[in-house]
Amino acid sequence: MAVSVAQRIARALRGKPTLVLGLPTGRTPLNLYRELARLTAAGQADFSRASTFNLDEFLGLAAAHPGSYRSYMERHLFTHVNLQPDRIHLLDGNARDPLRECEHYERAIREAGGIDLQLLGIGANGHIGFNEPGPSVSARTHRTRLHPETRRANAMLFGGDWRKVPREALSVGVGTILRAREIILLATGRDKAACIQRMVYGPVTPRVPASFLQLHSNVRLVLDATAGASVRGPTRRRPRR
Ligand code: PGA
């Protein structure tokens, strides 16, 4: 999975050196980021003119906090590829005025020409970015409350103690994600199978924010066998003898 998606990104960078990438955090993209570092070292991926926008960040954490998504990105990608620091964008979880920060982020994405290629993970509860299941979804970048299961899933960034995971975050909106020209969602593991099934075959509903991806015309799902266990392709006819 990591190799094929990394090669897709390297190809996109060759086609458009000023590519604007949307980036996720979490466990799922770790191998992909390792592979992008390898391709960069091998001279097969060039990020020197590319821009990146991360999906989300915890509220109330300084960028340098080891649990911040900024720190995660530095650790796993930014220190290993040749991105220019001024073309790396993350929401500032420590912004004095979070709402202004969200508006500023939307503007920055627009001014960069919009997201060309949005990479996504998915929460076991069906979230994308920090767009959590609920009675509605936000179209634009916004401040949000994290569900307890999302805080538990992030405990590894806070010494294994989920109570240390911030209760709130900033996240791009579902509309922000849907405006990307191309979307690639990665998922691995049995605990993602049910939400993948609901994302692909269920109704479009804020109870499964990822289901809104059904409204986009250029989404690719890259799944391992366990995450994709409930996804059946079109039934094949037996070849006639
Ligand atoms: P994970 O997180 O990659 O750690 O499973 C994915 C997500 O919550 O979007």
3D architecture notes:
This protein is of the alpha/beta class and 241 residues long. The chain has one domain (2-221): Rossmann fold, CATH 3.40.50. It contains seven helices and nine strands, in the order H-E-H-E-E-H-E-H-E-E-H-E-H-E-H-E. The protein has helices spanning 2-15, 30-41, 69-78, 98-111, 148-153, 174-178, 193-201; strands at residues 20-23, 51-54, 56-58, 88-89, 117-120, 142-145, 168-171, 182-187, 219-223. It has a six-stranded parallel beta sheet with strand order 4-2-1-5-8-9, with no helix packed on it. Helix 2 (30-41) links the parallel strand 1 and strand 2 (51-54). Helix 1 (2-15) packs across helix 2. The structure holds 2-phosphoglycolic acid.
SSE blueprint and pairings:
Blueprint: H1 2-15, E1 20-23, H2 30-41, E2 51-54, E3 56-58, H3 69-78, E4 88-89, H4 98-111, E5 117-120, E6 142-145, H5 148-153, E7 168-171, H6 174-178, E8 182-187, H7 193-201, E9 219-223
Helix pairs in contact: 1-2
The protein binds 2-phosphoglycolic acid.
The site of 2-phosphoglycolic acid has 8 residues, from loops.
